[in-house]
Prior knowledge:
- This protein is of the alpha/beta class.
- The chain contains eight helices and 14 strands.
- The chain has helices spanning about 55-65, 80, 90-95, 105-110, 115, 180-185, 210-220, 235-240, and strands at about 1-5, 35-40, 45-50, 70, 95-100, 130-135, 140-145, 145-155, 160-165, 170, 190-195, 225, 245-250, 255.
Amino acid sequence: MKLRFLGTGTSFGVPVIGCRCGVCTSQDPRDNRTRHAALVTGADGRCVLVDTPPELRIQLLAAGVGRVDAVWFTHDHADHTSGMDDLRVFSARSGHVSAFAGCETAQSLRRRFAYIFDDDYRPPDGTTKPEVRLTALTDEPVEVAGMEMLPLRVPHGDTVSHGFRTGPLGYVTDAKSLPGDVVAKLRGVRILVLNALWFGNPHPTHFNVEEAIEAAAAVGAERTFLTHLTHRVLHSDLLARLPRGVEPAYDGLTIEL
């Protein structure tokens, strides 16, 4: 199994438009963070895309990705879904792309992208639309592109985000906390991914770095990677300040499991 971080930024991305702070003007490419996405590749080569952000096409080109077998939507916020139309190229080749999302997110996606999910709509001759078969998640494990994935419901402000566990990998983004049942389901993972915005100043819907460190300690993975980072944290500063076993992710980072 392989995990590639395609995008490790928040909804603003880094650099932030019009900002001249030290992170936004950093010459370290690891401080350049596109909106959140990741790619999980199984032993058989099939790939699960986590979220479809606005930069999806650019991310997939940079990663040399030629196939996507399924999509896991964590939740319906724009920075995690607005690139869905870029799935057209994959459904054109394979007939359709399978997608998975929590019930609330699935309902929202069907409304927001009605042209995709309306079976009665046919695009004009010579044009295409993404062909996406959307499955609503329960709390039970589901097979996704040959991998068993266990949905993990976590609070995200007034909505719910769905992380997952698959084998030795636990993946949670856009969470404010890890409920006890989620911690129990994550125990034993070797690699854990958590969101973290910045140091200090607690946020109402996301972990800050201190909260993410505490959550990582509760799970006890060998290595934890922080994603969904803002322009308030330099990569080099995170490397210096994070405890052993906790590391900042960056766009393009690939982890072999």
